[in-house]
Amino acid sequence: MDSRTVATPKLIVLPRGDEEKPIILRVEGETVNGNVNYCIGRNTPLDCLLLDFAARFYEFYNHTIMICNVPRRRLVEKEDTADGIKLEDGDTIEMMTTIP
Predict the structure, then answer these.
(1) Domains of the chain with CATH codes
(2) pLDDT at 1
(3) pLDDT band, residue 23 (cuts 50/70/90)
(4) Which residues does residue 40 pair with via DSSP β-bridges, in sequence order?
(5) End-to-end CA, the chain
(6) Minimal CA–CA distance to 24: which of 100, 72, 74, 92?
(7) pLDDT tens, 27-67?
(8) What is the DSSP letter of 77?
(9) Is the pLDDT of residue 24 over 90?
């Protein structure tokens, strides 16, 4: 296990708009022991998830990318939203550090 690996909570809930419907996404990363679930708004930019993940799990924000497999494996842009790229509850986002 990597010395940077930290214990993960079951669910991390990020703020969302009053009328915004939630989605629960599974996030995997090199410094996460297993995976972590995030509850975010469906129209919240996924950059908010990246910011929290980087701060919580000691990743470098500017050197971390998001990848999802819906509908095919693709890079997730920071301005993308769950609804915009058609994610559903339980879908997985992989966090990868791009520095050597």
Answers:
(1) 11-97 (3.10.20.90)
(2) 42
(3) very high
(4) 23
(5) 18
(6) 92
(7) 988 767 778 899 999 999 999 999 998 888 777 888 888 99
(8) P
(9) yes
**Is the CB of residue 92 less than 8 Å from the CB of residue 67?**
no
- State the Cα torsion 92-25-16-10 to the nearest 10°: -130
Among 95, 35, 91, residue whose Cα is nearest residue 65:
95
Spatial contact of 46 and 80, defined as CB atoms under 8 Å apart = yes
Alpha carbon distance 14, 38 (integer Å)? 7
Prediction pTM value: 0.82
Count Cβ atoms below 10 Å from residue 97 Cβ, excluding itself: 14
Chain segment 3-14, per-residue pLDDT in tens: 444 455 688 999
Buried b (16+ CB within 10 A) or exposed e, 15-45: ebeeeeeebbbebebebbeeebbbebbbebb
